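User: Hey, quick favor. My workstation is busy. Could you predict this chain's structure for me?
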Amino acid sequence: ILFLGTAATNVVNNIAGDLGLAFYPGEAATIATLRHGDGPGSVANTYCGTGCTLTTVICNGGTLFTSSAMTTATQNGGVWSHDTGTVTTANVLGGAWQHLGGATITTLTVGSGGKFDASKGVATFAITNTVQLYKGAEFYDPQGRSGNVVFKLNNCTLADVKITLAPNKTYTLS
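Assistant: No problem, here it is.
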């Protein structure tokens, strides 16, 4: 299914299908809330092109690709690949977030079942605020694309999280 529509109140739920939002160049879609997948075994596939205006996106499973800015991104499962567009708040609570492009993330939280993976792209990007990590969280940036990062361990120790970083960068625990 290919979706276009610019009503500010559009709500889209893709539980198990194949969906393209503003799929082709020059198309536009405004989505107030996008819910993707229905759990870890979800077969949902959603592609959000550069013409999307996204506010709240929730990924519960399946495969999600976004290439536009969004206000709040919450991932509970699945694989989410994000290319371009600033993300104000990203909550990676489960599944794997693949950060492909140079999009800034203002606030990043990685929960006990989440993995933030910056190994797939080449562009540098910034994480503006302190990265919040919880027991079992994974932060993977072997090329150092995220620059100098500050981490906060929440109710856990360094031994409780997995962090892979590039050499010769400044990393701070707060």
